[in-house]
Specification:
alpha/beta, single chain, eight-stranded parallel beta barrel, binds orotidine-5'-monophosphate, TIM Barrel, about 240 residues, decarboxylase
């Protein structure tokens, strides 16, 4: 599908039926969709087939984090399922990321983007300190993103607050996927490092992950339309 928008709608629902009901209301030229831990745990891989049949590009967000062999095999199975994007945790380290990148390179005509999660957008400096990291989110994101790039990743998940810095440091082709997107005035929920859709694009983000501001809106389609309009996406 030739999608016009950088928005990826997080289908964070407890049942496959609810997610498909929402997907049928969305237009695959106006957004991509993300399948995360909640939806995948309830639906299994059938959800990927169902969303592909509706013509969506699918980001499989299971944030793999394990030994290199296990993650490389999991990433390979995800690519075989035809997903557009899959992610691993950068903190799994260089050997884990290299093994994953190699696994995808060995697939003929691989099209799946391999992305590493840096510092979760729900974390701030005090959260990092509690897990033993004495650095600002920006410093730690830079360190992990640099490692991810040199380990063969296509890009990273970070907050849009780090997009400008990463785009300068690692180049404009290194894909920046940014959750924690909140239109002005919307509830931040558990997200700490947030930006509006327009700010995130101006900062250099390539893709904007949006869940609750769309899925929990009184009118989800109108919420997506407004976000797309704020980005100048032709509707
Ligand atoms: O990898 C992700 O997609 C992700 C990484 C991250 O650092 N922060 C983050 O929020 N996400 C995901 O992005 C989505 C954000 O949802 P909302 O906060 O509802 O917009 C959720 O599905 C999260 O699992």
């Amino acid at each position: 599908m030739n999608c016009q928008s950088p928005i990826v709608v997080a289908l964070d629902y407890p049942t496959m039926a609810q997610s498909i009901e929402m997907a049928k209301r969305l237009d695959p030229s106006q957004c991509r969709v993300k399948v995360g831990k909640e939806l995948f745990t309830t639906s299994g891989p059938a959800i990927l087939d169902a969303l592909h049949k509706l013509d969506f590009d699918v980001f499989l967000d299971l944030k793999f984090h394990d030994i290199p062999n296990t993650v490389a095999n999991a990433v390979s199975v995800a690519a075989a399922a035809g997903v557009w994007m899959v992610n691993v945790h950068a903190t799994g380290g260089r050997r884990m990321m290299e093994a994953s990148a190699n696994a995808l390179q060995q697939r003929a005509d691989n099209k799946t983007l391999l992305i590493a999660v840096t510092v979760l957008t729900s974390m701030d400096q005090s959260d990092l300190l509690e897990v033993g990291i004495d650095a600002t989110p920006e410093q730690h994101v830079k360190r992990l993103a640099t490692l991810a790039k040199s380990s063969g990743m296509d890009g990273v998940v970070c907050s849009a607050q780090e997009s400008s810095m990463l785009s300068t440091e690692l180049g404009k082709d290194f894909v920046l996927v940014t959750p924690g997107i909140r239109p002005a005035g919307s509830d931040s929920g558990d997200q700490k490092r947030i930006m509006t859709p327009a700010e995130a694009m101006a900062a250099g983000s390539h893709y904007l992950v949006m869940g609750r501001p769309i899925t929990q809106a009184i009118d989800p389609i109108e919420a997506l339309t407004q976000a797309n309009k704020s980005l100048g996406v032709s509707l």
